[in-house]
């Protein structure tokens, strides 16, 4: 039996009853009901499929984020002695990745941590707008590339209280 798409009934919304077509009395109500049910089922399946795709995508994103965080390492800068004088050699021999966390432990009355650029690191100066940390238990996430940190208290950077860390 050939059907004419222009004579198909309009799609139903949930809870809506379908009126019988008046132009084509030879069409059985069973065929109309079957079509309506098929159309609604396909519409519902497509809607559920879209929701399922969104849910799967969200789940994958959360898993990737968790995977990335689960593989991030945490380093205590300076080891047991913490953030103090002559720590500039502390990063040697360590492999850092973007996302790793550096923990700076120090007395806030005696030191601070300043995230600087290469010029600030080399000259032991604090560039305008540099982020200054003062908690004594600072946790700083490494970005990909070079990361530079100094203490801006007078004479501290010049006494080796600075580190340069390359994160891959």
Automatic annotation (TrEMBL):
User: One GO cellular component from the entry?
Assistant: plasma membrane
Residues covered by the Phytocyanin domain: 73-168
Q: Does the keyword Ubl conjugation apply?
A: no
Against InterPro entries, the record matches this protein to: Cupredoxin, Phytocyanin-like, Phytocyanin_dom, Plantacyanin
Entry keywords, A to Z: Copper, Disulfide bond, Membrane, Metal-binding, Transmembrane, Transmembrane helix
Q: Which domain of life is it from?
A: Eukaryota
Q: Which SUPFAM superfamilies match?
A: Cupredoxins (SSF49503)
Give the Pfam families listed for this entry: Cu_bind_like
- Tell me the segments the record calls region Disordered: 1-28
Q: Name one GO molecular function term.
A: metal ion binding
Q: Which CDD domains match?
A: Plantacyanin (cd11013)
UniProt entry tagged with the keyword Membrane: yes
Membrane spanning residue stretches = 49-67
This chain belongs to which protein, by name? Basic blue protein
């Amino acid at each position: 039996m050939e059907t004419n798409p222009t004579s198909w009934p309009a799609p139903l919304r949930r809870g809506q009853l379908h009126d019988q077509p008046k132009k084509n009395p030879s069409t059985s109500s069973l065929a109309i009901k079957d079509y309506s049910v098929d159309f609604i089922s396909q519409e519902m399946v497509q809607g559920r499929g879209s929701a399922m795709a969104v849910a799967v995508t969200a789940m994958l994103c959360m898993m990737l984020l968790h995977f990335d965080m689960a593989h991030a390492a945490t380093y205590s800068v300076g080891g047991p002695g913490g953030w103090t004088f002559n720590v500039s050699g502390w990063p040697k021999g360590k492999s850092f990745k973007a996302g790793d966390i550096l923990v700076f432990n120090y007395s806030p009355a005696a030191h601070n941590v300043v995230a600087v650029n290469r010029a600030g690191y080399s000259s032991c100066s604090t560039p305008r707008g540099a982020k200054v940390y003062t908690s004594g238990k600072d946790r700083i996430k490494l970005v990909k590339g070079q990361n530079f940190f100094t203490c801006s208290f007078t004479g501290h950077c010049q006494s080796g209280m600075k580190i340069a860390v390359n994160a891959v």
